[in-house]
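Rather than argue in generalities, we reproduce a single protein record, letters for residues, whole numbers for local backbone shapes, just as it appears below:
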Amino acid sequence: MKKQQAKKGKQSHNRHSHSHSHGHDHGHHHGHGHHGHSHAPNNKAGLLIALIITAGIMLLEFVGGLVTNSLALLSDSGHMLSDTAALALSLAAMWIAVRPRSASRTYGFHRFEILAALLNGVTLFVIAAFIIAEAVKRFGEPPTVASGTMMIIAGVGLLANLASAWFLMRKADVKDNLNVRSAYLHIIGDAVGSVGAIIAGILMSLFSWYIADPIISVIVAVLILKSAWGVIKSTVHILMEGTPANVDAEQVGKTLLLIHGVKEVHDLHIWTITSGLDSLSCHLLVEDGVDCQAVLQEAIEQIAAEFQIEHTTIQIEKSQLKHPALKV
């Protein structure tokens, strides 16, 4: 019997969920699930293969850009440098995020992924600024570029990008794992840069339009800036405890108000801990005669079913309970 109880206790702990209820005519629940942040081994394998391929081609394009004097190749290698960093950070986030939480870090290391993404976004801006500055210098007197060698290297880069994307699609969860999906989109962006370098090489080879090299470089830099802005905007929103983009806070409040016995919803807060792990906290003022535990249970189920949020902290209050209003 003791073994069975111990086994049940272990299973309960592994589900990462717990609840507390307090008397005095109000209840408090805190439950959470890490279903959205599960990192399967195949995700790590897919990212690792993509990382090795991307890093190798990044070095090839960088050396090739220096040898052929092609800014388009150098800019694409800069783009691939950012993607190599993104893949490495995605891998690091998977390993670091599973470290156990402590008394000083009650959320553990889940935020490492967000901090890494912010650093990656800032780095992208620096790389894009360097490419644009160098392109402006070349517009006046475009240097001669070894277009044939450039196209060969860009072609190899394109094939490598497509191979990386294929490995991620086959071995990792590109659709539902946000961490892997962001890395996948970076690789697709690399492929676009390689196509741009090939187009520039064709124009220079056929028409000697060497100005095509800096023009394509600026286009790639703009693509980098667009990706960087999206990354920075998302990470800052998360660090500022903003409401997740896929959750309508007003609709959450309306859903809770539809529960029988709920009179008011206040102190409602919804935020993201890390990709795929959202949290919610709120106070529910209920009618004095209702069953607090029944209201609490329905609220938990409604939030999980309609908004896919399982990390919830809900406090149930009745009319005689008085507490100061939150000042934010």
Remarks:
- Residues 1-26, 31-41 have pLDDT under 50 and may be disordered.
- The longest strand covers residues 262-274.
- The CA atoms of residues 12 and 18 lie 8 Å apart.
- Residues 178-207 form the longest helix (30 residues).
